[in-house]
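Moderator note: this is an archived Q&A kept for reference. The question asked for a predicted structure of one protein chain; the sequence and the answer are reproduced below.
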Amino acid sequence: MLNTLFNKDNILKEKMLAGDGLLSNYFHEREPGLVKTIHFPERKKRTRLVVKKGIENIFILLENIVLFYTENKIVYAIDKIGKKFITNENLAILELELDKNIFFRANRQYIINIGHIKSFRTYEKVKLSVEMNPVGLNDQHFIIISQETAPAFKKWIHTA
């Protein structure tokens, strides 16, 4: 059963390996102990990304990427000087492949880099608003962390 599931949908496998709570709970209820007994080698996290610049495909170091966002089903990466690039990946795949100590899925639209967060503050009493570097980026991108995600964000900020 497990092999069939993994062959059908590699994202489920990746989520299970990443410790996705819902998926782990699903398997734990049906086959207790299975999640603990399966051992997969650690995947090396990406250090660079292939993006499109005009008709060229170029490499960008992930440390230089401020954020990823999606708009009209296209995923963009913005670097530290404010240049925008089109990526070939969707946010779900990027979330799995990026280092979780550096990148955080802020909401359905954004993945942000901890090294480029300028500040964050309370917004509408229960949400958080995140301000990113470089200056001017925040005029175009208003990043909100939901009430449900805010505790995980605060923990990530303080432990990364």
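Archived answer notes: The domain at 48-159 is CATH 2.40.50.1020 (OB fold (Dihydrolipoamide Acetyltransferase, E2P)).
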